[in-house]
C-alpha cells in the first residue's frame, strides 16, 4: 500500500509533489532598524523651511540605507522630493551640467529605478546579500544568461487603501504567485532541481511611497546557489504540439496541487475524497484535450498509450472519491497514482521533444514553504 498523502507543500518543480511530502521551512526576516537620517529628511521636507538641508539629508540617507541594509527608503525619497520642490521655489536657474545630473538622480530615486520596484516580467537580477529571504532595498538587473539570484515571472497589483499588514500581503503573494508560475514556466519537468517560487512584497514604508506590487520570481532554495539561463517556457518558446500537451497536463498538475493539508487521510478522510474527485475530473479534462489534438505521426502512438493509462487512472481516482472506508480509498488511490506516474508519460514527452527526466522532490529543504518572500 502506498504511503498516505500528506500536507500540501510548495512544488519547486515537476507536475506535482508526492502528496506525503513535507513543506519547506523558512526563517522569518528579522526586524531592520529605520535610518534616522531618512526620518530627519522627511520631517524637513514636510516643513520645507530649509529645503536644501532636507534634500541633502535625503540623499545621504539613501546612501546609508544601501550600504547598511536599513529601512526608511520611503522617508528618504519623500524627504528629497518635498525638499526639491521647496528648493525649486527659491532657485531661479540651475545652469551647470552637474546640477542637471543632480536632479536626474533625485528623479530616478523617486521612480524607484535600480530598486525592486523597477523589475519586470522576464528580467533576472541579483541582490546585495545573494539571498531571497529577509529584506532588500535594491537589486541589480543582469542578463539571464549570467548567474543570478532570481527571475521575475509575474507581477500582482494590490488594491489601494491602508497597508493590509505583512501577513496578509504574504498570504496573497503565496496564493497568487504559485497560481501564476505555470503561465511562465509551463513545463514543471524542465525546472532545475532546487528551483522554487519566491516573491518580493511591499513593506509598510514602501506602501506609503506608492508601492503596491508583488513581484513573483523563481529562485534557488540553496541560498549559496544561483541560477543560470532563463526558465521561461511558454507559448513564445514552445511549438504548437508541445504547448497543447502542456496545457492538457496542466489540468492534472493543478488538481494535484490541491491535496488536503492534513498529514494523513485518517485526519481528513472527507477532504481526501473530495480531492480524489477533483483529480478524476482533471484527468477527464486532460484526456479530452489530448484526444482532440492532431498529433504528429511519430507522437500519435505514444500519446494514445498515455491516454489509455489516464482513462484507467481516472476510473481509479473516481472510485477513491466514492470510497466508504480507508482501505478502499488507499487501494484505488494507489492504483490511480501509479497510472498517472506510468512510463507512458515519459514516452509521450520524448516524442514531443519535452523534458523526460522525472522531477526530484526534496524534503525539509531551505527556502520556499511558508514564507518564501522578501520585503522591499
Automatic annotation (TrEMBL):
Tell me one Pfam family matched here. Answer: DUF4190
The answer on whether this UniProt entry bears the keyword Membrane reads yes
Name the source's superkingdom. Answer: Bacteria
Keywords, A to Z, come to: Membrane, Transmembrane, Transmembrane helix
* Residues in DUF4190 domain copies: 38-92
Q: Which residues cross the membrane?
A: 37-62, 74-92
Upper taxonomic classification of the species? Bacteria, Bacillati, Actinomycetota, Actinomycetes, Kitasatosporales
Chain ranges of the Septum formation-related domain: 121-235
Per the UniProt record, the source organism is: Streptomyces lancefieldiae
Q: What is this protein called?
A: DUF4190 domain-containing protein
Alphabetized InterPro entries for the sequence: DUF4190, Septum_form
